[in-house]
Amino acid sequence: MGKGRLEAFSDGVIAIIITIMVLELKVPHVADWAALQPLIPVFLSYLLSFIYVGIYWNNHHHMLHAVTRVDGRILWANLHLLFWLSLIPFVTGWVGENHVASVPVALYGVVLLMCGLAYKLLALALVAHHGKDSSLALALGKDRKGLVSVAAYALAIPLSMLHAWIGVAFYVGVAVLWFIPDRRIESRLAP
Fold first, then answer.
1. CA angle, 178 as apex, 172 and 181 as ends, to 5°?
2. Out of 47-51, 68-72, 113-117, 141-145, least confident range
3. Domain range spanning residue 180?
4. Which of 61, 69, 81, 59 shows the shortest CA–CA distance to 175?
5. Pfam families, from UniProt (predicted)?
């Protein structure tokens, strides 16, 4: 089957995820700069999560651009990814409301870890469907950035329990690693 509905559905879900996240930014009832002070942790957690959702949307778009069709296994793998992405607003709000406490930061890492694993499963399903010699398979290669990301999340989770800011530093580091879009697919598909 074609990939159009999968792309449209995914784009819609990701747009809703971002909308839900921004609703956590409550408008102050006082019109001065001091009223914004308590919102700083909420805003910073929103900013990091917005970047993460943007990274996933960008890479999801590139990955699906490299394929022509999908099957049932790919649809379920994509839903699996969207499930974990849909939990980002919850953990984002929890981290922000609790001023970067250890347990919320650790759970944030669990959600990021599961997003990374779900993305990898989607990539594997797409490669299996299109073949190991497909443009996508050749572009993805060994996916070192993906493996480094998953390892960083797995390490950050227990380190967050020692000190929450250690986990945050790992999550920011992985976001920086992925902030520049993955050009492997673009370069493979360029005319």
1. 145
2. 141-145
3. 4-189
4. 59
5. TMEM175
pLDDT confidence of residue 189: 63
Alpha-carbon gap, residue 184 to 169, rounded angstroms: 26
Transcribe 118-155 into DSSP letters: HHHHHHHHHHHHH-TTSHHHHHHTT-HHHHHHHHHHHH
CA neighbor of 4 nearest in space, from 132, 181, 12, 122:
12
Q: Which tops the pLDDT comparison, 62 or 118? A: 118
- The pTM of the full predicted model, rounded to 2 decimals, is 0.92
Domains held by the chain: number? 1
Residue 27: which residues within 8 A CB-CB, separation 6 or more? none
Sole residue written with tokens 């651009």: 65
